[in-house]
Specification:
Layout (H helix, E strand, L loop, with lengths): L2 E7 L3 E8 L4 E8 L3 E4 L2 E3 L2 H16 L8
Antiparallel strand pairs: 1-2, 2-3, 4-5
Length: 70
């Protein structure tokens, strides 16, 4: 079976959603990310934390698929 992976990088979390070939959600995973507020007018994120959250979301969303057919 073929799958399609979607990654949503938001302000507060990273989410990955795995769809099967008919568009049904096969699995999803979400990881919160830290926001830093250096002053009242801005927000910052740690790029390594974002990259790690994307990597871990992908690993977690595909690990439960039967026979790892992804």
């Amino acid at each position: 079976m073929k799958y399609f992976l979607s990654i949503d990088q938001g302000t507060t979390s990273t989410r990955s959603i795995l769809f099967n070939s008919d568009g049904t959600v096969a699995n999803s995973h979400q990881i919160d990310i830290t926001q830093y507020f250096p002053d009242n007018n801005s927000v910052e994120h740690d790029p390594k934390e974002i990259l790690d959250s994307v990597t871990n979301c992908i690993k977690n969303v595909v690990k439960d698929i039967n026979n790892n057919e992804y």
